[in-house]
């Protein structure tokens, strides 16, 4: 049943879905471009209205896998030779299948190394480029017809969406992001505590990425971490924080999708140091200017000291505003928001051992809750005429992720007051 028919049928039954629900359902049925667009909306609380951000969190990106024979043919075309020349084994059952790509486990023929192969689904790139070009052209036409849309920077927002989404499906760019992060680890001497997967560039193309397979456990599973490494979970978290903070300024891009599935505590093997953290999936990255990061540093310092006046000034510095901001009123609203944050805690389920120390914990908090916190910050800014850039939202979202991990692995640690944490 089409979305239109479903809407009419529901309307006749007295059920009327709000516009954001109808749009989300439509996007899911329109395919890859619109699913990715929905994900962009959900990840951009600084740009889109709250009801759309929250609704598009439901935008499903798990799709039926493309048949193995089709993927096999695509891999052969990208390699320019039979799969058997490169791999001794490729699992025909995918590890994951999303709207634009499919991931398969494999083993390299010459070295016996375990790898994962990320393959762009057939036709996706052309469809994305065509659809996004149309959306950008339409936004320029709408701005011409309605100058108010021009003042809202509609075309600029759509242009940003277009460049971000096209970059996400260019796997050579993802390979570059991974390599830059790996070089940063080598340059800073932190490769003993963190890792990025090695990219096999000889077998990788714009539409296929072959990289080292990491085996490990999520950063949110305390029991699994204890069984995987002899390292102290709190020290593992401190290392992850320092590595990520350092990469924000030291690398051209920073990893902007730090949910638990993309941070793994790696299994100990091949003589590697215990407790290394693996950073995976560099499809979504952010860029931040030194000026913005200076404002974020001031913001973090003010959070630690609960200096809401400095917090307000830092946010005004990083945001765009066409009016004079009442700093005292803004600071008072931020203080009320902070008080609400301090009472809002994720539900952390802890199991204690015989010595009373926690031996297992899990986190009952999802991306929706993270986004709601961000939306509250954005709304307070909007109330005072401040519009925050997307890069600030991306940074704050990663900080909120780390805050959740701290509640599991080091509940007594105050990240911003701990002298082990280096913000630069």
Automatic annotation (TrEMBL):
InterPro entries: ABC1_dom, Kinase-like_dom_sf, Mito_struct-func_regulator, Prot_kinase_dom
Protein kinase domain segment(s): 89-421
PROSITE patterns: PROTEIN_KINASE_DOM
Cross-referenced PANTHER family: ABC1 FAMILY PROTEIN, OS07G0227800 PROTEIN
Annotated protein name in UniProt: Protein kinase domain-containing protein
Native source organism of the sequence: Coccomyxa subellipsoidea
Organism lineage: Eukaryota, Viridiplantae, Chlorophyta, core chlorophytes, Trebouxiophyceae
